[in-house]
Amino acid sequence: MFVALEALNILAEDDLGRLGHNSADYLHLVLEALAIAFADRNAYLADPAAVPDATLRGLLSREYARDRRRDIQGGRAGMYRAGRVGRYAGRGPARLALERARAIRCVWRPPTTGATWSR
Q1: Which among 49, 65, 96, 105 counts the fewest CB atoms within 10 Å?
Q2: Listed residue (6, 4, 1) closest to 69, CA to CA
Q3: DSSP state for residue 47 in the 8-state scheme
Q4: Distance from C-alpha of 109 to C-alpha of 92, rounded to nearest angstrom
């Protein structure tokens, strides 16, 4: 659900009808928006029940979507990493630490730095 919401937010200001349904430009734009949304999902939503509301608000904000839309280049596929949602969420995004039942601690970092688990 999150991926669809973010992708639609990224595409909100584009006139997809003008591009023609399933045209090369239409598919490029939609697939790139989805790629960006999946990159953000992988980085920020490891455990949906533990994602801070501020982070979700930032990821789904219009301003963040506009900035992410600028990452899409016409005519070429991109390799997307998670965006920096901190300034849109009102707090820094770098790290998510969760204390779980049974004393399991998960320290999660964006995919480029890896993740560690400890008991």
Answers
A1: 49
A2: 6
A3: S
A4: 12
